[in-house]
Amino acid sequence: MHSRTLDLNGLRIKTPAIVASLGADAERAARSAEAQGADIIEVRLDLLEDPYVIKDIRSTVSLPLMATNRISSEGGSFRGPEERRIGILMDASRFSDIIDIELMAPGRDKLLENISCPALVSYHDFNGVPDNVRSIIERARCAGADVVKIAVTPRTLLEALDLLRILLDDPHPLCVIGMGAVGRHLRAVAPLYGSLLTYGYVTEPTAPGQMSVRELNTALRCLGAR
Question: What is the pLDDT of residues 95-115, one digit of tens each?
């Protein structure tokens, strides 16, 4: 398998790309993410005391930045009005290369109408795999996604296999993440089937079953994906 370059409205990303998902220690961890093998840095604004730290991170790293302010209904820690959450993301977009917004977010359309950088539209299910994954992907594209991210929790290997089939069948920019114990291996395997991104941590996990950036880098090299 050979890597390829994805062009998102002028932002060129070599894929499959490892996204370093950073939480409370984002400013410190960002400096070591690239050395560990990351291609993109995700700043989880909902896990920061001061979300405007992203401005400082922007000035200290050369990797593309993805800003995420995860809504509580999809596993995030943001507590407050949706208008405030979207406002923070809009401000963060000035220092970001990609913005992550949830498909089911009430403020999704307002955000997408007011940012100029590419948008990753995401969907998370921490309890299983919905029957209508393909239609969810299509809804995200219709909403204006440059990249669609589906993060779900397979309970069986057959469900995990179904997710890989979706990747093989879909010609558009798509990221599929398997969460939990059964889905953990998909973080390393899904990129071989076409997942553009996989997420890892630098100091501590930000999602169930997440591997470290170092582990993912090693696994993808062993599998010939990097």
Answer: 999 999 999 999 999 999 999
Please list the alpha-helical segments (H only) found in 93-204. 108-113, 133-143, 157-169, 180-183, 186-189
- Catalytic pick among 55, 149, 172, 185: 149
Q: Which of 14, 55, 124, 172 is catalytic?
A: 124
Does 55 participate in catalysis according to the annotation?
A: no
pTM: 0.94
Neighbours of 77 (CB within 10 A): 16
d(CA 60, CA 74) in angstroms, rounded, equals: 30
Could you tell me if 198 and 216 are in contact, meaning their C-beta atoms sit under 8 angstroms apart? Answer: yes
Q: Average pLDDT of the chain?
A: 94
pLDDT at 2 over 80: no
Whether 149 is a known active-site residue: answer yes
CA distance 101 to 107: 9
DSSP letter, residue 31: H
